[in-house]
Backbone:
């Protein structure tokens, strides 16, 4: 279900944050309590652990029209469940490196580690990522209004396999 | 009706003129596939080979929005209303360049969705506003078997206009008043003797097809082999349970209904379903009466050659186009399975 | 004795101890092979080996678990068997593997792009490095490299890497031709161009799931997340974005597991170049985890394991 466009009226973009409960969510909370000012484009979804974050969550968000996705968890070695973020690190890195083939800008996806005590670091992370997404602008959408006929651009894009290659 | 002759180079201007009033769906190349696309002009229309997809999608699209809904305001008793809006399709269309089997497929659809007993409003709205322009086959493919299921390479049933191909153009004949109107838009010349030549050529095509399959015992034998699961396991062993055969089939009409959206708003969607998939008959309880692909393939054969004919005056729900054979990644050949049913005997 | 006869002999000898052996026989024309499930010695007579034997029969193995099965494999197919074994999805003791040295297989998609519709094939035969075809009454003689499956051009493992019986001679691995791969060429495009490319491709997808169902590594079978309503990752709408979502699910679920057999792309009735997505995923996981799928029965899936210090992953601040 595509989100409504209301958010854009205020000049905001749609950034989704997946945060682990134990470190980054607490860090973000602490930043709020300390009144560390942050841009408000980010919508946070709390998860038990970065290990719970299926890369498909991120893909679904990006394909549904998110302009950016930020994932943050405990620093490697500090996972509440000992190894959840070690697994996450491999998955998230794999996703980030595969993204360019899809045409989705990998800069729209960031993963990082912020502990519960690093409220200043959280503020910095949100500010930087939001600024980057604003610099990139709204993400292109694979909207489906295009008539199935108007695929003329396809012709020039079709791969010529004359020289082969897998 | 009068026969006229249309040069190949005049097909494009003809489509352009028809497209002023109607959406013209014609076969075009995409990759190595040939698919129906809305055309006005500029797309290279492919009229010499059977399209990969079938024309059913034009009257029965893969996804049809039946209605849209939004959450209403809350009532005093705490209940929440839902506002729904019906979304009936509108507009006129032309199916350009189907083969006689594709046109036959639509007649098989009509028996289910638009007839004296049942009128599916969505299907009817598209079907009744769609005209069919069919190209006769001068050279049926080795996988074609329309002559076994009641059709023929020059069968004009279900078509508004028939085009009989010659090297430099098509002899065209309107079969309905709608067809006549469309044909009047074509740049053309009188067909003269070409008409006889072109029709004779198409008429002879059936002779290249080999003798029709004997299906006389299929219904009787199907009952016998129904419980012989080993028989069906043998024939479905290499099937991958994918949806190619059903989705490309001009006659497969089964659908699924889902609500897609959120609690706030969304749509009720009717989508093609695929009897080869596990989910087709999966029940909410977790039970699945057709849990194995052998049972699903049995159902596909049964539906086309037994159940449908029993309901619809012995007509088969197969038009013999052969798409399920040519496109199958495992090259499962429905003709062999039907033949095995026909020749079935105990032990 | 040629390769085919040697193979038939091996199978006939092994058959009495097996429920069946999977191989190929000719399909509805000489360009199409179809899987052959051999249960009797007479069935074995119909076996063929050659450039039309495209299907990876490994796809059927997990569903036959519990039976004693023989399977004929090309080099690429054997990697799927190894991967399935490494994932503990097959019992080695119930499996008899008949390997041979593969000489390359035909890509009908590339052949269609050269010859047009392939409806009227009278004969097709591989002679050395050419494919001789009689089509529409004409003799065509094509360099095999122009019409073989793209994977064959860079095939480094034409011989079954695991087998109980090996028929015929070992083939020499290909030295990849110079020039850019399809992936490299595709990556010359800008990100927006790539996005538009997929948008156009995905509009054609009919979501038949043949890419998934022909994939030997798609082992969820009847319980794929793409058709689940809860969680509801993909809607029933066959729109470009939903279709693309499904394709990316397939990519992520195969990351580190894809054996590059190319069955997804071959099975696609709409000729969508899914191989690009697979090639990228393989490139990424090979670089990150220094490991290729389907080569080592003892290997652990890279996305089911980790190192405390990841040498190839830059530490994120």
Residues:
């Amino acid at each position: 279900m595509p989100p409504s466009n209301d958010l854009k009226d205020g000049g905001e973009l749609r950034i989704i944050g997946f945060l682990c409960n134990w470190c980054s969510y607490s860090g973000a909370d602490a930043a709020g309590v300390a009144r560390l000012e942050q841009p408000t484009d980010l919508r946070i979804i709390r998860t038990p652990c970065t290990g719970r974050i299926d890369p498909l969550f991120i893909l679904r968000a990006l394909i549904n029209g998110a302009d950016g996705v930020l994932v943050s968890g405990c620093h490697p070695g500090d996972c509440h469940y000992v190894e959840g973020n070690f697994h996450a690190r491999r998955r998230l890195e794999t996703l980030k490196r595969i993204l360019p083939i899809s045409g989705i800008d990998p800069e729209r996806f960031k993963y990082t580690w912020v502990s519960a005590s690093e409220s200043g670091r959280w503020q910095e992370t949100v500010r930087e990522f939001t600024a980057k997404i604003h610099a990139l602008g709204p993400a292109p959408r694979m909207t489906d209004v295009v008539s199935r006929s108007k695929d003329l651009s396809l012709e020039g894009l079709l791969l010529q396999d004359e020289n082969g290659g897998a | 009706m009068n026969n006229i002759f249309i040069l190949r180079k005049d097909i494009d201007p003809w489509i352009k003129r028809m497209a002023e009033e109607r959406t013209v769906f014609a076969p075009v190349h995409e990759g190595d596939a040939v698919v129906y696309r809305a055309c006005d002009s500029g797309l290279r229309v492919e009229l010499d080979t059977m399209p990969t997809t079938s024309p059913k999608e034009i009257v029965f699209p893969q996804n049809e929005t039946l209605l849209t809904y939004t959450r209403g305001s809350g009532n005093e008793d705490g209940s929440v209303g839902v506002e729904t809006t019906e979304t009936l399709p509108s507009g006129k269309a032309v199916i350009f360049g189907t083969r006689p089997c594709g046109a036959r497929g639509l007649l098989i659809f009509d028996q289910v969705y638009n007839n004296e007993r049942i009128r599916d409003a969505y299907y009817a709205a598209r079907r009744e506003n769609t005209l069919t322009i069919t190209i006769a086959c001068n050279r049926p493919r080795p996988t074609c078997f329309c002559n076994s299921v009641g059709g023929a390479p020059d069968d004009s049933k279900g078509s508004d206009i028939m085009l009989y191909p010659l090297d430099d153009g098509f002899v065209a004949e309107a079969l309905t008043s709608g067809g006549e109107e469309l044909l009047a838009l074509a740049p053309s010349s009188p067909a003269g003797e070409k008409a006889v030549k072109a029709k004779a050529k198409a008429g002879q095509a059936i002779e290249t097809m080999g003798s029709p399959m004997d299906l006389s015992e299929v219904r009787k034998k199907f009952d016998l082999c129904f419980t012989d699961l080993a028989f069906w396991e043998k024939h479905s062993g290499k099937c991958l349970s994918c949806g190619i055969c059903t989705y490309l089939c001009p006659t497969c009409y089964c659908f699924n209904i889902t609500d897609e959206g959120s609690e706030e708003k969304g749509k009720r969607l009717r989508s093609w379903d695929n009897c080869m998939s596990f989910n087709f008959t999966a029940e909410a309880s977790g039970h699945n009466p057709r849990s194995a692909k052998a049972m699903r393939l049995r159902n596909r054969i049964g539906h086309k050659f037994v159940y449908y004919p029993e309901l619809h005056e012995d007509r088969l729900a197969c038009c013999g186009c052969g798409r399920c054979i040519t496109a199958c990644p495992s090259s499962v050949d429905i003709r062999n399975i039907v033949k095995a049913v026909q020749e079935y005997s105990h032990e | 004795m040629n390769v085919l006869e040697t193979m038939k002999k091996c199978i006939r000898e092994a058959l009495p101890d097996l429920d069946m052996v999977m191989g190929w026989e000719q399909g509805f024309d000489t360009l199409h092979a179809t899987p052959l499930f051999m249960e009797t010695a007479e069935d074995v007579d119909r076996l063929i080996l050659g450039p039309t034997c495209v299907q990876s029969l490994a796809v059927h193995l997990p569903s036959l678990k519990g039976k004693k099965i023989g399977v004929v494999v090309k080099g690429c197919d054997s990697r799927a068997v190894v991967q399935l074994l490494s994932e503990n999805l097959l019992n080695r003791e119930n499996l008899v593997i008949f390997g041979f040295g593969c000489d390359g297989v035909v890509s009908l998609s590339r052949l269609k792009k050269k010859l047009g519709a392939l409806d009227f094939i009278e004969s097709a035969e591989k002679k050395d490095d050419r494919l001789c075809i009689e089509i529409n009454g004409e003799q065509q003689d094509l360099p095999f490299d122009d019409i073989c499956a793209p994977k064959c051009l860079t095939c480094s493992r034409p011989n079954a890497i695991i087998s109980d019986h090996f028929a015929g001679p070992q083939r020499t691995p290909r030295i990849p031709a110079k020039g850019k791969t399809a992936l490299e060429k595709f990556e010359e495009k800008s990100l927006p161009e790539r996005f538009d490319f997929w948008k156009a491709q995905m509009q054609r997808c009919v979501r038949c799931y043949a890419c998934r169902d022909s994939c030997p590594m798609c082992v969820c079978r009847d319980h794929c997340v793409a058709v689940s309503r809860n969680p509801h990752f993909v809607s029933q709408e066959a729109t470009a974005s939903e279709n693309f979502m499904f394709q990316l699910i397939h990519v992520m679920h195969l990351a580190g597991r894809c054996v590059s057999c190319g069955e997804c792309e071959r099975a696609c009735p709409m000729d969508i170049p899914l191989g690009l997505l697979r090639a990228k995923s393989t490139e990424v996981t090979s670089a990150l985890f220094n490991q290729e799928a389907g080569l080592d029965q003892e290997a652990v899936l890279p996305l089911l394991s980790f190192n405390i210090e990841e040498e190839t992953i830059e530490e994120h601040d």
User: Anything to note?
Assistant: The CA atoms of residues 77 and 254 of chain B lie 40 Å apart. Chain B touches chain A at residues 28, 30-31, 37-39, 42-43, 260-262, 265-266 (CB under 8 Å). The first strand of chain B starts at residue 3 and ends at 7.
